[in-house]
Amino acid sequence: MRVIWLQSAGCGGCTMSLLCAENPDVFDTLAAAGIEMVWHPALSVETGGEVRRLLQAATEGHSPVDVLCVEGAIARGPRGTGRYHMLSGTGVPMLDWARRLAARARHVVAVGTCAAYGGVTTAGGNPSDAVGLQYEGSHRGGALEADFIAKGGLPVVNVAGCPTHPGWVLETLLLLASGRMGAGDLDALGRPRFYADHLVHHGCPKNEFYEYKASARQLSDIGCMMEHLGCVGTQAVGDCNIRPWNGEGSCTRAGYPCIACTAPEFEEPRHSFTETPKVAGIPVGLPSDMPKAWFMALASLSKAATPPRIARNAVADRIEVPPTLRKPKA
Amino acid sequence: MTELLVGPFNRVEGDLEIRLTLAEGQVAAAQVNSPLFRGFEAMLLGKDPRDALTLTPRICGICSISQSIAAARALGAAWGVAPSPQGQRVAALIHAVENLCDHITHFNLFFMPDFARPVYAGRSWHGRAVQRFTAMEGGAQRAAVSARAQILHIVGLLAGKWPHTLAVQPGGVTKAPTERDRLRILVSLRAFRRYLEEVVLGARVEDFAALADVPALMCWDRGDAGLFLEIAADLNLAGLGPSQGRYLSFGAYPLEEGPAWAGGLWQGGAAPFDAGRIREDLSHAWMLGAAAHPAQGETRPDEEMRDAAYSWCKAPRYDGQVFEVGALPRQVVAGHPLARVLAALPGGGGVLGRVAGRLLEMALTQLLLEDLAQAIDPRERFMLQAEPTREGEGAGLVEAARGALGHWLRIERGRIANYQIIAPTTWNFSPRDAEGTPGAVEAALVGAPVGPGEDTPIAVQHIVRSFDPCMVCTVH
């Protein structure tokens, strides 16, 4: 399977994260699946004229492109020209390159939330008028048409995340290479369901605090961050706490909130990222699929039932009270 | 005179285009264009200042922690808050891991593969370069990605993930490590030391760190460092891509006892540094407004992309002069003997000096990391609670892998009223200023040989990559 990878208006962090793949490493994983990186801006030897010829051949259909990966949003500004990002050496906006290559590719993969929905590149008034490949925020229709379907029959596969977990990108490519990814394997926002059917809440080490609404009041407290510190792990898709990051990490494990970086428009939460918006003291965002009345009832009940151990640890920066050990039966 | 447009320029972070004017088989003039505008400084206006901690790391996926720390320090300065000493230590630790990884990534994945190109097929070392550094296949590349992934476990453990952590705050870091964490970190560092000693340096880290003169460096024949030095001698990389000899460092890894590596200026001798003397010139950037200190700077893109300009990158100058930043400048300023003798070579040792500076810093950073981790005290506090103020002004000056990174922030009525960033590559890859003085890499390219028929000259590639440019930071 031949892959061409473009870096558009983004930070390059999804590639940097990809290089963190382990068991086996990124090169062995790709090789094992017969995936050939025809050109990647950070990894390939080809530069300058060699790349221009390679891209030209691909857009003219002389060399097949099985997968086009795009990392970064697509800049449309100023005034719809795309000149805020000209692909260097070509005199042609990345906007046009992405469209031309997408028309030739068997599959198109948006790597990261910028490429999928616009992401951080579109924050704060979107100075470069950037969009995702097939979405503008949560609305369909981006650099490509709303109803774009690649030659292989799938819309843009949105491997959203900021950054993406190396496993998300590699396993998407493995599924495409094996011909085992169909339209039903993507969620309603085009994300692969193998990671998007999970919530960041699943496997979060703060679950016991969550159960009792034993809340952290400030960053570095080890309690649940949903009530006060902006954590939306109960609503955000991702298997971040099931498969760890960089060994044994995740955002909530390191003591800072999930900001739903796999979701469209996460970059503009309309409140500070580390503060939970509330109405009458109740967090505005409730856990996915949970009826509000039940949430309120269970929350007040469980809060009242909070064991002292959990209440005290929630507002400390480390475990101060260990669990009581069950006395062995005589 | 003929013109040559070089791009897409890969194995640099982000997008880069270079316009060369050629005469008599060499580069007569160069213009460096950063062809991507995103506008982070504009995005931040009007936001809650704390949001800078989430948004600015996402300027750059390769020096994300550097951006975190610069933002945290600028916020801390504006609020009048300092981190707890142990929180500062952990922040320095994860920052140094990132910087070390960046050097490893640059050397193995970005810089060295050019020597495996067929153009060098006749050279005595070419077979070894092919074996070690062929893109995505070479043994050195495989060893590097594996070692890098493992040492980044330290960032996973302390800061959740890499890149784009939110663990670094003005008051310290969000996670208090335990004794078990400290020992895990030391084990990861031990494994990385083994990689450096068996693969990169071929000898003890201390031995490379103790090199003090150029002949001893050029005699180093072990590890991939030895292969590079053999190539550098054969191709005379010391004579390629000269520096102007003005070096700047903000000083790296502030700790309770002072910075691990002191900052300042070096122009053949040490000179005092005053951040108030920095100006960003916009004469050749597609930016509107006048030259200004970053505390007063603004970011208004020129939608017309006027003909007199050629890049989205501004041109930072210190006292009106071009300064070079990076690993070699940082070690020259900090006073390492090898860095000082490299800088004393004509043109600061050019490509050789920059790459050797990075190899030296790999060794020094490993030693620093071991000290930082040893001294973690899990009984202490790792974060002090910071009370945001509604008004304030502050700067966060740090050293990223690629050199001096500064954030300048002003808060009014609890919102960001101004935010300006100068990234390391903004210094090195700046366009010309109002005087017509070219930026550091533009000057370094003059005189580079261009062979007949070369449309992407190999010498130009070596010079550009020797700076390890990060274009996504440059134009943020």
Automatic annotation (TrEMBL), chain A:
Pfam families for the chain: NiFe_hyd_SSU_C (PF14720), Oxidored_q6 (PF01058)
Cited InterPro entries: Cytochrome-c3_hydrogenase_C, NADH_UbQ_OxRdtase-like_20kDa, NiFe-Hase_small_C_sf, NiFe_Hase_small_N_sf, NiFe_hydrogenase_ssu
Residues binding [3Fe-4S] cluster: 240, 258, 261
UniProt cofactor(s): [3Fe-4S] cluster; [4Fe-4S] cluster
One cellular component term from this protein's GO annotations in UniProt: membrane
Enzyme class (EC, first level): oxidoreductase
Broad class of the protein's primary localization: other
GO function terms (MF aspect): 3 iron, 4 sulfur cluster binding; 4 iron, 4 sulfur cluster binding; electron transfer activity; ferredoxin hydrogenase activity; hydrogenase (acceptor) activity; metal ion binding
UniProt-listed GO biological process terms: anaerobic respiration
Coiled-coil intervals, chain numbering: none
Chain residues that bind [4Fe-4S] cluster 1: 11, 14, 114, 162
Protein localization: Cell envelope
Chain residues that bind [4Fe-4S] cluster 2: 201, 204, 224, 231
Span of domain Cytochrome-c3 hydrogenase C-terminal: 198-273
Keyword terms, alphabetized: 3Fe-4S, 4Fe-4S, Cell membrane, Iron, Iron-sulfur, Membrane, Metal-binding, Oxidoreductase, Signal
Name this polypeptide is given: hydrogenase (acceptor)
Gene name in the database record: hupU
TrEMBL record, chain B:
InterPro entries from the UniProt entry: Ni-dep_hyd_lsu, Ni-dep_hyd_lsu_Ni_BS, NiFe-Hase_large, NiFe/NiFeSe_hydrgnase_LSU
UniProt key word Nucleotide-binding: no
Binding sites annotated in the UniProt record for Fe cation: 63, 473
Subcellular location: Cell envelope
Superkingdom of origin organism: Bacteria
Keywords noted in UniProt: Iron, Magnesium, Metal-binding, Nickel, Oxidoreductase
GO annotation, cellular component aspect: cell envelope
Protein name, as recorded: Hydrogenase large subunit
Taxonomic source organism: Gemmobacter lanyuensis
Taxonomic lineage: Bacteria, Pseudomonadati, Pseudomonadota, Alphaproteobacteria, Rhodobacterales
